[in-house]
Amino acid sequence: MGAGMKAKEGVLEILNKVLVSELTAVHQYLLHAALCKHWGYGRLHEHYSHLAQEEVSHSSGLIDHILYLGGAPAMDRLDAVAVGKKVPELFEADLAFEREDADALRGGIVHCVKVGDYTTRHRLEEMIVDTEEHIEWFETHLRTISQVGLERYLAEQIAGKS
Fold this sequence. Notes:
With 162 residues, the protein is mostly helical. The protein is 76% helix and 0% strand.
């Protein structure tokens, strides 16, 4: 086993909390991708598949970092996965989820600064960039739905790759 660093106080707890969140996101976005495919919304299926891959990449990086710091990655639990019967319900749930994730990441960054863990801080800062992009995407699409109406919005989502 490669030699890693010793984790600073509270860092492993934060990383594992974020990991559980990211792993939950993988499941949630895979489910939402499948629902959109099932409903015939090819573009949304593509987008959710992309989101799921991004969250897999975050999870993978977190697992590596937790191991590097001598911790045990929390792979044995997930938070509740949001299910919806309509596209706007998925968007609302995902937006709430991403906002919560952003808050957790910000809290983690503040803690890392306090304990002087700049490697973990950098990793969390990279993740928050994607999280902010996700928040922006869901907000924009919910706004579009309210502007053009759901039927018109969904008609645009039927095509495959845009």
